[in-house]
Amino acid sequence: MPTAVPRKLPIGIQTFADIIDGGYYYVDKTRQIHRLVEEGKYYFLSRPRRFGKSLLLDTLACLFEGREALFRGLYIHDKWKWQRQHPVIRLSFGDGLLRTREELDLRIGELLRAEAERLDVTLQNTSIAGRFRELIEAVHERHGERAVVLIDEYDKPILDNLLAPERARALREGLKNLYSVLKDADPHLAFVLLTGVSKFSKVSLFSGLNNLNDITLDAPYATLCGYTDEDIDRVFAAELPGLDREAIRQWYNGYRWGGQEVTSVYNPFDVLLLFQKRQFGPYWFESATPTFLVELLRERGVFTPRLEQWEAEAALLGRFDVDDIATEALLFQAGYLTVKAVEEPLLGYRLYTLGFPNQEVETSLSQALLPVLGVEESPRHRKSLFTHLRDHDLAGLEAHLKALYAGLPHDWYRNNPIARYEGHYASVFYSHFAALGVQVTVEDASHHGRVDMAVEAFGHRYLFEFKVVEQLPEGRALQQLKARGYADKYRGRGQPIHLVGVEFSREERQIVAFEAETL
Question: Angle CA(434)–CA(438)–CA(439) in degrees, nearest 5?
Answer without folding.
Answer: 90
